[in-house]
Design brief:
The structure is a single chain. The chain has about 120 residues and is mainly α. It has helices spanning about 5-40, 45-80, 95-100, 110-120. The chain has one domain: Four Helix Bundle (Hemerythrin (Met), subunit A) (Up-down Bundle), CATH 1.20.120.910. About 75% of the residues lie in helices and about 0% in strands. Helix 1 packs antiparallel against helix 2. The structure holds zinc ion. Zinc ion binds near residues 88 and 89.
Length: about 120
């Protein structure tokens, strides 16, 4: 079990990560809107570069949304007192591991077992 001060520290960490990601997501939405505004009354010069930039931005945005959801989940688990409980084996996850990777839901042993699967996912 985490102590009250550990819980507090983890909560501040998660909230800091969340506000940073939300700020980035807003910047991405701003980019999308600028781009749509730009298109009105402008010909299609450099369309391919523009398309490329746009799709990169969208992919980043997807990743940010994914991370935002993970952090919100972690905060919910923290509130419920379950943030340090491994979802696989129900053993406690150490505070150091949580601070290194606040959105983790697995203890080190279960994470190691899943590592190959996640490496494959990340490669996509
Ligand atoms: Zn476990």
């Amino acid at each position: 079990m985490l102590t009250a001060s550990e819980t507090d520290e983890l909560k501040r960490r998660l909230e800091a990560d969340l506000s940073r990601l939300v700020a980035n997501a807003h910047a991405a939405i701003g980019f999308t809107m600028d781009r749509d505004r730009d298109r009105i009354g402008r010909d299609s010069m450099d369309e391919s570069t523009e398309e490329e930039l746009y799709s990169t931005q969208l992919r980043l945005h997807d990743r940010e949304n994914f991370l935002i959801a993970k952090i919100q989940d972690a905060l919910k688990r923290l509130q419920a007192g379950e943030v340090d409980e491994c979802e696989e084996c129900s053993e406690p996850i150490g505070f150091k591991r949580l601070m290194a990777r606040p959105v983790t839901t697995l203890c080190f042993e279960c994470k190691t077992a899943r590592e190959q699967v996640e490496a494959d996912e990340a490669a996509e």
